[in-house]
């Protein structure tokens, strides 16, 4: 009953920041974006072979999906994949809240199907997981995954879907050098053993691991990420210096190495892209080779920073 096997990219393209208003300092990321600029980003990404775009209806409350849909109109639908999410926290009171939210996402994105549809937060796994089944049967959703779920919730969702001939094909959790809860909880091992693709979001910790920001050059004032990360930047210098050092030895930059670390750990990183040159970083990251010693030293430096980057929306894994 399940559809054809899901295409599994090395790196997915994140558009959380596309939900900001476009005004610097206004919104979660404080990014200054224009449609023309994002079209240039998309053209470069597609030319480089990156075709899976990840968004969610709560990113800017529909803005990210809408902007992404407009940008992708320049391509044939078969040339890219769309990943978006149902969020139980904003579900309505109708008999079919997930189907209704999906319809809104389809309209925002200007498409008639979603390649990979997620339950964004666990809320009530027994309640919400069955709602995925009619969407899969309808063809409006090709593949499904769960995001921000712990191991027992992942297994329960898989059991519920399995009874209808489907399965959890992907897990999307926060995973970075600074936040390895899914690894410590056994989720990565479970995904590996079950053939489930693990997508890692916030790999660059919203810019804090790019080496671009430091106490003298903090994240954009007025943005939500500035409130969270600016106080941590001084503690990250040892880690970002090591990322930069490894990068220099491989003609790469600091964020490239942080992304390469996530790939080396067996995950598909979702990297937010708002500027064309970010695509060059993804290309470099895809070709970096990290030794076991590199990985161990990076993780030791990350642990030594003693920061907690778990999002307010995230449960302990």
UniProtKB/TrEMBL annotation:
A GO molecular function held by the record: oxidoreductase activity
Pfam families from the UniProt entry: Aldo_ket_red (PF00248)
CDD domains linked to this entry: AKR_unchar (cd19103)
Presence of the UniProt keyword Translocase in the record: no
Residue ranges constituting the NADP-dependent oxidoreductase domain according to the UniProt record: 11-302
Keyword annotations from UniProtKB, A to Z: Oxidoreductase
One Gene Ontology cellular component annotation held by this UniProt entry: cytosol
Name of the protein described by the UniProt record: Protein IolS
InterPro entries per the UniProt record, alphabetical: AKR, AKR_Detox_Biosynth, NAD(P)_OxRdtase_dom_sf, NADP_OxRdtase_dom
Position of the signal peptide: none
Source domain of life: Bacteria
Entry-linked PANTHER family: NAD(P)-LINKED OXIDOREDUCTASE SUPERFAMILY PROTEIN, NADH-SPECIFIC METHYLGLYOXAL REDUCTASE-RELATED
């Amino acid at each position: 009953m399940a559809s054809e096997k899901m295409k599994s990219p090395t790196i997915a393209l994140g558009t959380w920041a596309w939900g900001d208003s476009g005004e610097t300092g206004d919104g979660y990321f404080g990014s200054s974006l224009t449609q023309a600029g994002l079209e240039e980003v998309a053209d470069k990404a597609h030319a480089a072979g990156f075709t899976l775009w990840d968004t969610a209806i709560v990113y800017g409350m529909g803005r990210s999906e809408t902007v992404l849909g407009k940008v992708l109109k320049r391509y044939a639908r078969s040339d890219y994949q769309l990943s978006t999410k149902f969020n139980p926290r904003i579900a309505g009171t109708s008999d079919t809240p997930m189907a209704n939210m999906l319809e809104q996402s389809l309209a925002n994105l200007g498409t008639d199907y979603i390649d990979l549809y997620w339950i964004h937060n666990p809320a009530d796994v027994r309640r919400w997981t069955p709602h995925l089944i009619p969407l899969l049967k309808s063809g409006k959703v090709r593949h499904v995954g769960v995001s921000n779920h712990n191991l027992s919730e992942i297994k329960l969702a898989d059991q519920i879907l399995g009874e209808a001939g489907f399965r959890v094909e992907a897990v999307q959790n926060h995973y970075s050098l600074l936040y390895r809860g899914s690894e410590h909880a056994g989720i990565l091992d479970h995904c590996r053993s079950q053939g489930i693709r693990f997508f890692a979001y916030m790999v660059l910790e919203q810019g804090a691991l790019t080496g671009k920001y430091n106490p003298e050059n903090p994240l954009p004032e007025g943005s939500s990420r500035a409130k969270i990360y600016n106080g941590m930047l001084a503690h990250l210098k040892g880690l970002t210096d090591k990322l930069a050092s490894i990068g220099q030895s491989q003609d790469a930059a600091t964020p490239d190495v942080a992304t390469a670390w996530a790939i080396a750990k067996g995950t598909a990183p979702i990297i937010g892209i708002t500027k064309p040159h970010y695509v060059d970083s993804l290309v470099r990251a895809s070709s970096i080779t990290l030794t076991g010693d590199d990985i161990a030293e990076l993780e030791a430096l990350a642990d030594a920073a003693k920061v907690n980057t778990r999002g307010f929306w995230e449960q302990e894994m």
